[in-house]
Amino acid sequence: MQGGSSCLSPAQCRAARALIAWSKQDLSAASEVTKATIAGFEAERLFPDERTLRHIKRTLQDAGVLFISENGGGAGVRLAKPASASIDTDETETVQYEEYLKNDAPPGAGG
In terms of domain of life, where is this protein from (predicted)? Predict the structure, then answer.
């Protein structure tokens, strides 16, 4: 059982770490929660207080994890879309590639 914690489940913690390719040590270093506490929580042997769980969750969110609440399909996690998902371009700049500068059309073709 989850020991009354509604903020973060052990499965969500494991899945969140997997999404961002973090080890327990990585999460421990980022959250300043001991690796033993994280391991015990994820193994469902230890249930930290709500404050600690909120801190772990916030650390994972800051790393790009979105937590999905229980909505009939079960609670889960997913990656947030990067804030700069678009390519950085200057739309006022025209780029011409050499292969498009040649006129391959026959004379009189209007090309």
Answer: Bacteria
CATH architecture observed for domain 10-79: Orthogonal Bundle (1.10)
> How would you classify the pairing of strands 65-68 and 76-79?
antiparallel
Report the C-alpha gap between 108 and 96 in whole angstroms: 23
Choose among 64, 68, 47: nearest CA to 5.
Answer: 47
Q: What is the pLDDT of residues 2-24, one digit of tens each?
A: 444 458 999 999 999 999 999 99
CB 77 within 8 A of CB 15: yes
The backbone torsions φ and ψ at residue 79, rounded to the nearest 5 degrees and listed phi first, read -80, 140
C-alpha distance from residue 68 to each of 14, 16, 78, 97, 111 (Å) = 14, 11, 7, 45, 55
pTM (two decimals): 0.66
CB atoms within 10 A of CB 83: 7
Q: What integer is the mean pLDDT of 87-104? A: 53
